[in-house]
Amino acid sequence: MKLPPISYRRAGSADEAVALLAESGDDAAVLAGGQSLLLELRYGDVRRGVLVDLAGAADLAGLAVADGELRLGALVRHAAVERLELDDPLARLLRRAAAYVAHPPIRARGTFAGSLAWAHPAAEWCALARALDARMTVRGPAGEREVAAEDWFRGPHRTQRAPDEVLTAVTLPLLGAGAGVGFAELRRTSGSFALAAAGCAVHVAAGRVTRARIGLANAAGVPVRAAEAEAALVGSDGSPDAVRAAADAAAAAADPASEPHCSAEYRRHALGVLTARALTEALGEAA
Amino acid sequence: MDVRMTVNGQPRRVAVEARDSLADALRDGLGLTGTNLACEHGVCGSCTVSVDGEAVRSCLVLALQCEGSEVRTVEGLADGDRLSPLQEAFSAEHGLQCGFCTPGFLTLLQQALDDDPFLDRDEQKLTELLASNLCRCTGYVGIRRAVVRAARAGRGEPPAAD
Ligand SMILES: Cc1cc2nc3c(=O)[nH]c(=O)nc-3n(C[C@H](O)[C@H](O)[C@H](O)COP(=O)(O)OP(=O)(O)OC[C@H]3O[C@@H](n4cnc5c(N)ncnc54)[C@H](O)[C@@H]3O)c2cc1C
Ligand code: FES
Ligand code: FES
């Protein structure tokens, strides 16, 4: 099946992408990895006449650590995150979650930032962005601004990004030595989107949990930060009872949708189980 | 408009529309119909080809995105009538029945073998890789045996004993 007629524009820089978007107004879409956009166009879920390809924008390519933060430019692909080597537990968490993002040939082209822009409620990167207080940098005709993850997600496939803005980078704070990380996901087949997933990072000192960050995928129309679960865990000894209490709080905080293969009730239960698994993994490795 | 790519080692110029996928350009523009299209959703992998040393879904890449790229399709694996070691291994291990998925598996696995001649040593990773593509006939056992056989052959080792 052919895609509908489109015109294709190649941007040589982020600024050029912004200019090309402005030229075509509402009819334009940013083309990053194309692993969601091209199939949405093919099946008529999205209608756009002009695609602005970012691939040639060298200023969007970087993946770098500075000032205690990891900055992923818009062109950084899932596969690069899957191979990320960093002297920080954040890399371990990202690598673990990457293994759940689609399968290798999709990961070879799809981008980290594209996932944040697409804002699918089941997306692993969106849940982690919410858990870890990521910041999105967007550039439009009026210049550049940063949006915190808690403000970014507006609903399924809806974000704070205006149609004439390019998401240029996503920034994640490093976790710091000693953090434990965990990720757990339920999906129907390998390569399927998550039915539910939980990712977390914890810090432990003198036998007490001092910090916990938990993000849930597919717990609602937007990624959920399980703040009640975090509060339940912090100050505790991280024992199985404490983990169970946190998992119950996470499940209670979820407002999951129902679908044929996953009722809301089942999904809520799964979110509790996955939270417990992710936390157990993280607590097991926290120094 | 035209797109220039190196396809199976040959410089090619293909007339395409902006909306043509790489699969469209290969099949309709160059007559390389070994690349099969099925789901056109990125799910099945029957359209897999290598682009610049990465196995990708040619249904989810625009031809114009491949300007200047090196593309390898299933037609690029054999040397004339001589099958590649991976193709031989598929035959020896019955890695196919209907054969519809085979070009996608061959391109996926050839790229993986090029990247890592020892890929059969990490069983978990090999399972994940094989799960990239769908085969509705073989149950994957023959395909797995074929890639293991090809990896061993590439290292000059005899086929694994059962
Ligand atoms: C078979 C299959 C399985 C998948 N499984 C998963 C999964 O399990 N988990 C998961 O999270 N994802 C999954 N995906 C989606 C995949 O991760 C996509 O790569 C990702 O969602 C979008 O990234 P992209 O770079 O391909 O973006 P595109 O497809 O190029 O773009 C997606 C949308 O975001 C916009 N956009 C992208 N980048 C920018 C930017 N920098 N600035 C402004 N707008 C932008 C586009 O305009 C478009 O609306 C799957 C996809 C397929 C085909
Ligand atoms: S036809 Fe491309 S993945 Fe199925
Ligand atoms: S051999 Fe028939 S689908 Fe794989």
Automatic annotation (TrEMBL), chain A:
Protein name per the record: Carbon-monoxide dehydrogenase medium subunit
MF GO annotations: FAD binding; oxidoreductase activity
Keyword terms of this UniProt record: FAD, Flavoprotein, Oxidoreductase
Organism: Geodermatophilus nigrescens
Matching Gene3D superfamilies: 3.30.465.10, CO dehydrogenase flavoprotein, C-terminal domain, Uridine Diphospho-n-acetylenolpyruvylglucosamine Reductase, domain 2
Any Pfam family the entry gives: CO_deh_flav_C
Domain FAD-binding PCMH-type, residue spans: 1-177
TrEMBL record, chain B:
Pfam families: Fer2 (PF00111), Fer2_2 (PF01799)
Positions of the 2Fe-2S ferredoxin-type domain: 1-77
Alphabetized GO MF terms: 2 iron, 2 sulfur cluster binding; metal ion binding; oxidoreductase activity
UniProt entry keywords in alphabetical sequence: 2Fe-2S, Iron, Iron-sulfur, Metal-binding, Oxidoreductase
Matching CDD domains: fer2
Pathway: Alkaloid degradation; nicotine degradation
Entries under Gene3D superfamilies matching the protein: 3.10.20.30, [2Fe-2S]-binding domain
Keyword Transmembrane helix: no
Keyword Oxidoreductase attached: yes
InterPro entries xref list: 2Fe-2S-bd (IPR002888), 2Fe-2S-bd_dom_sf (IPR036884), 2Fe-2S_ferredoxin-like_sf (IPR036010), 2Fe-2S_ferredoxin-type (IPR001041), 2Fe2S_fd_BS (IPR006058), Beta-grasp_dom_sf (IPR012675), Diverse_Oxidoreductases (IPR051452)
Descriptive protein name: Carbon-monoxide dehydrogenase small subunit
